[in-house]
Amino acid sequence: MNNNPVSISKVSIILILGLCVSCAHSPADKTAAFSTMDAVGEAADPRSNVMRAADALILGEASLKSGKADDLIRATQILTVIGARPADAKADDLVKQWSEIALLQNPELAAPVYRGRILGPAYKSGTVLGSSSLVVEQLFLAGKKATVALVPSQQSKLTIHVSNSEGAPVCVKPGVKKKASCQWLPIFTDRFEIRIQNNSQSNVKYHLVLN
User: Fold this and answer.
1) Cα separation of 146 and 106, whole Å?
2) In this predicted model, what pLDDT tens digit does every residue of 5-45 receive, in sequence order?
3) pLDDT at residue number 26
4) Per residue in 98-126, pLDDT tens?
5) What is the pLDDT of residue 9?
6) Using CA atoms, how far apart are residues 170 and 161, in angstroms rounded to an integer?
7) Nearest residue to 166 (alpha-carbon basis) of 136, 188, 183, 184
8) What's the rounded mean pLDDT across residues 187-206?
9) Which of 12, 23, 69, 189 could form a disulfide with 102 if both were Cys (CB 3.0 to 4.6 A apart)?
10) Torsion angle of alpha carbons 193, 131, 122, 105, nearest 10°?
């Protein structure tokens, strides 16, 4: 048996270099992985309150761009009827914000009633920077259908990826342009990770609707 220290050192260096090469080829982040994933998971029922809220948000965003005050008020009325509200109490209430804009454009329109709304789906609004991602964590209860919908405010290349606490994918919807949804039935009460990946160079505003 050769116990030559020089030979042992050479072998060690080769092993270390091999490990370094394999590390160099590992992705530094998840951007590449998310940009190439295929669609996985069931889409939500279009009649659900989450999807009705998603459609109202699409209508509202389009109305802001077109300046159609009556459509903007209609979007706020739909959100009010189904009880949609901001997931964060400190976030802007789009019903209030959009109705104020619509009434400035056309004072004759009827504003929606804010008080007494039954709590329905919650929405989060924000911006995903170009070539980056953000993560929202949400607790979903066992035996109760979980539903999420992603609504970009513009044509985009967003990907929504839902995974459980063990990192296993539950739903993946790549290349979201108008809206995408995921629906599943948690077997256990669990905290799920909802990752929104922006595979374009431009910043993209979004709305995320949760039941």
Assistant:
1) 38
2) 444 444 343 333 343 333 333 333 444 455 556 788 889 99
3) 32
4) 999 999 999 998 877 765 556 899 999 99
5) 47
6) 8
7) 188
8) 94
9) 69
10) 180
As given in the structure block, the two tokens for residue 63 are 């109305």
Exposed/middle/buried for residue 35 (C-beta within 10 Å: 0-12, 13-18, 19+): middle
DSSP line for 55-101: HHHHHHHHHHHHT-HHHHHHHHHHHHHTT-EESSTTS--HHHHHHHH
Long-range contacts of 70-73 (CB under 8 A, 24+ apart): 70/102, 70/106, 70/109, 72/98, 72/99, 72/101, 72/102, 72/105, 73/98, 73/99, 73/102, 73/103, 73/109, 73/110, 73/111, 73/112
DSSP of the chain, one letter per residue?
A: ----HHHHHHHHHHHHHHHHHHHHTS-SSSHHHHHTPPPBSBPPPTTSHHHHHHHHHHHHHHHHHHT-HHHHHHHHHHHHHTT-EESSTTS--HHHHHHHHHHHH-TTSPPPP-TTPPP--EEEEEEEPTT-EEEEEEEE-TTS-EEEEEEESSS--EEEEEE-TT--EEEEEEEESS-EEEEE--SS-EEEEEEEEE-SSS-EEEEEEE-
Sign of CA dihedral 210, 70, 158, 200: negative
Place of tokens 């309150």: 49
Residue 156: pLDDT band (50, 70, 90) is confident
